[in-house]
């Protein structure tokens, strides 16, 4: 079966712009989480959605937001981009609260 | 989530078993122990998870200490493809999708 699909794979944006990243979870998975990975901070949790509701949020500024649609697909948005937002953004999905998560390959965002 | 402690790096030879340790002394009774690994230029990959009993799957085995304050991920026969960063994560049942990644253990596999 298809894995977690993230689009686009690579993105270059200018400081001050906004960006939207997309994630299609594995069919049947209703929980979608987002993570940011940088060399300095490692993997950090952004937020998690289940049935279109945000259930958990990490320690990121309000410029980072997300949403989930009725088909479980999810998007995350970063407004007013800063150079420090350059990172690999990863999406993960799961079918069970206590189960493992399947990660996508990520979107590499570069802010110039 | 409970804090975990892993060695920064470990080395192994191909086709030999590898035991990756993890300490989690502040684990609570309903916390699950998860292991993920990340190969270069890829997202993390789920390896295995467990609560109290030892667990086996096609990728690895998870041995959990009786007091649950430590666990060991066992790769029975390391291959070059197993070279990755391995993360041990203790996940609270109500953490809703949040996995707290530490620095992990960099596993090097020699041919």
Which strand-content bin applies to the residues of chain A? over 45%
Q: If you compute it from the alpha carbons, what radius of gyration of chain A comes out, rounded to the nearest whole angstrom?
A: 13 Å
Helix content percent band of chain B: under 10%
Amount of beta strand of chain B: over 45%
Counting H and I runs of at least 4 residues, what is the number of helices of chain A? 0
The end-to-end distance of chain A, rounded to whole angstroms, is 37 Å
Please give the oligomerization state of what you see.
heterodimer
Quick one: which chains have the greatest interface?
A-B, 28 and 22 residues
What percentage of residues of chain A falls in helices of 4 or more residues?
A: under 10%
Compute the gyration radius of chain B: what is it? 13 Å
Largest β sheet strand count, sense and barrel closure of chain A: 7 strands, mixed
Which ranges of chain A are low-confidence, i.e. pLDDT below 50, for 5 or more consecutive residues? Answer: none
* Element-level helix/strand string of chain A: EEEEEEEEEEE
What's the total number of strands of chain B? 9
Mean pLDDT of chain A: 94
Structural class by helix and strand composition of chain A: mainly beta
Estimated structural class of chain B: mainly beta
Kindly, what is the distance between the CA atoms of the first and last residues of chain B, rounded to a whole number of angstroms?
37 Å
Mean pLDDT of chain B, nearest integer?
93
């Amino acid at each position: 079966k298809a894995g977690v699909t993230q689009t686009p794979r690579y993105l270059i944006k200018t400081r001050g712009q906004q960006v939207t990243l997309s994630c299609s979870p594995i069919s049947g998975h209703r929980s979608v989480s987002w993570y940011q990975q940088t060399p300095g901070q490692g993997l950090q949790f952004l937020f998690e959605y289940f049935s279109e509701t945000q259930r958990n949020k990490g320690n990121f500024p309000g410029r980072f937001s997300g949403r989930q649609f009725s088909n479980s697909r999810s998007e995350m948005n970063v407004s007013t981009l800063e150079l420090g937002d350059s990172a690999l953004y990863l999406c993960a999905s799961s079918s069970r609260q206590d189960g493992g998560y399947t990660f996508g390959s990520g979107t590499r965002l570069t802010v110039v | 989530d409970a804090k975990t402690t892993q060695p920064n790096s470990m080395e192994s030879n191909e086709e030999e078993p590898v035991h990756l340790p993890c300490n989690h002394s502040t684990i609570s009774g309903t916390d699950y122990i998860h292991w993920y690994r990340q190969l270069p230029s890829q997202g993390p990959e789920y390896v295995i998870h467990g609560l109290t009993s030892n667990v086996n799957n096609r990728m690895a085995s998870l041995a959990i200490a009786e007091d649950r304050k430590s666990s060991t991920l066992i790769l029975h026969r390391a291959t070059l493809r197993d070279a990755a960063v391995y993360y041990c994560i203790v996940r609270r049942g109500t953490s809703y999708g949040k996995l707290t990644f530490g620095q992990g253990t960099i596993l090097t596999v020699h041919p």
